[in-house]
Amino acid sequence: MAAGRIVILGAGVSGLTTALLLSQDPSKEITVVAKHMPGDYDIEYCSPWAGASFFPVGKPNTAHAEWERASWSVLKQLAEEHPEAGICFQPTLVFSREKDANSATGRWFAELVQKDPWYKELVDNFEDIPTEKLGPGIKNGSRFTSVCINTAVYLPWLLGQCCKNGVVFKRDTFKHVAEAGYAHHSGEKADAVVNCTGLSSKTLGGVQDDTLYPIRGQVVVVRNDPLAMYSVSGCDDGEDEVAYMMARAAGGGTILGGSYQKNNWDPLPDSNLAVRIMTRAIELCPTLVKKGQGVEGLDIIRHGVGLRPFRDDGPRVEKERVNGLSVVHNYGHAGFGYQASYGCAAKTVTLVNDVLQEKAKGKL
Q1: CB-CB contact of 95 with 242 (8 Å)
Q2: Which EC class does it fall in (predicted)?
Q3: How many CA atoms lie within 13 A of 4 on its CB side?
Q4: 177 is in an annotated binding site
Q5: DSSP β-ladder status, 168-171 and 4-9
Q6: For the whole prediction, is pTM greater than 0.90?
Q7: Which end of the chain has fewer CB atoms at under 10 Å, N or C?
Q8: What is the pLDDT of residues 292-323, one digit of tens each?
Q9: Annotation-wise, does 153 bind a ligand?
Q10: Residue 256 backbone dihedrals phi, psi, to 5 degrees
Q11: How far is CA 308 from the centre of its chain?
Q12: Tens digits of per-residue pLDDT, 11-38?
């Protein structure tokens, strides 16, 4: 632990989780500065559009898998002890199709739908679905208990926990990451800036990460309840489309998805894709609607589009010096920002402490 003034850029799930963990040390003075805050809905702000769930996708024995492992323990505890956070347990079924092995969605879900995944000892009630109970074309399937996160509840909850710990929130925008060093609420220059700007790191001066690009996800939010979460490795409507659904806690509705469209910046819902999403959901879970009903049996709340911040080399969680300022990055989490949030934030905290300790030694 080390004292210091810290500015966090971004108030999505990565920025808020990092602020929460850092604020557990009262010697740190933290300012979160962002263009968008919980309660906003904007195509630039990815976190509100997420499902969100714990569907592990990291390869075993990698940092990604360890981030998910570390995050699961916290998400599980929140579901058990803090219902006000908007996280609930859900029975979960995942299915793998042989034909999806080389598709975009098949590669995305490769670890989730493995026959014997690394996470089977992590989550509760894991079991394989017997072959005779699998549908046509399904190679293997499993069921377990996971969590679903109502982002409309959880993001404000994170903000509230940060405020309780003394974190100050401000709205602002910057063209260069070094400008954030002068945004601390004390009026003094920050000792470190934490960059959690997600897809905006592609254009933010001093970062300008060309390996970062959007993966467009489209969803339909309905009032119908499937009573479980579902995920399939792909579908027959296109290799960048997929079938999944999850019912959010606290009346948050059911998310029907989706798509995995690389480098697609379109912020507007595609009505044809929406129909395909709803049709796939009913095929996957016929009890979602009354018997004999099709898409017309779905009670639609809204349509949504989010741009997942995908990075070729995976999330960037590292420190560097930019124009003489210490910057710690935590961005590029694609579609797993929530389920890796605590693991990535804990690593970020370690890096920030390294920066502050180095600064303290330099003053001796």
Answers
A1: no
A2: oxidoreductase
A3: 26
A4: yes
A5: unpaired
A6: yes
A7: C
A8: 899 999 999 999 999 999 999 999 999 999 99
A9: no
A10: -110, 125
A11: 8
A12: 999 999 999 999 999 999 999 999 999 9
